[in-house]
């Protein structure tokens, strides 16, 4: 039995079966729903196949699989000098996917590395054209600008950049203290403006009230009496209340008339 095995009676069918299995394994390829296969025929591009079961002839055809799902790539922190000469560290995240498998394989060596490097350089160049206040307050505008530039420049690689998000803008301690002082000064300025605006509105109302009281002399007397009533509830022992002599003119005139009447 051993001699028959060694002589080739059984080895030849086993080798043949193994060879057929290897041919079948390399001949049939199954691509998932999110995969595409770029087929090369003797080194030249032939077509893009998938998903599902595809046949690739060994030694004549070659297949390169491409993942068509959205890739979430974290852009490393970049040192950026803003337009107002402030040094910050900024990192972001980009979302992109392959829309043309042929371009992604043929036009660029490694589309993942190329997109990452392009995102880093674009992030530095775009943010360097803006001031620090714009980086902190207008992130949506900056995200849109970076996304548009990346999408346009990666179009030749079959890449579609769907979104870009700036995650962090890191400042040094001295700049954080300077921004805090600036914010405090801004709040103080707003408080003064609001106070001045209130004083102006109050003065306008006082002028209107004075004009109305001037038409009715007794109105001023009533206002004084109302003020005395409010002060009386303060439980103070002594009340000093100024009384203009103009308010007493009516009483003086009335007393004078009464005196003349009594003499008559």
UniProtKB/TrEMBL annotation:
Cellular compartment(s): Membrane
Cellular component aspect of the GO annotation: plasma membrane; side of membrane
Keyword presence, Aminoacyl-tRNA synthetase: no
Residue intervals of the Band domain: 26-183
Keyword terms of this UniProt record: Membrane, Transmembrane, Transmembrane helix
Transmembrane segment boundaries: 6-28
CDD domains: SPFH_eoslipins_u1
Gene3D superfamilies named in the record: 6.10.250.2090, Band 7 domain
Keyword Plastid: no
Main subcellular localisation: membrane
Membrane topology of this protein: Single-pass membrane protein
Pfam families: Band_7
Family: Belongs to the band 7/mec-2 family.
Identification of the protein by name: Band 7 protein
Organism field: Vibrio caribbeanicus ATCC BAA-2122
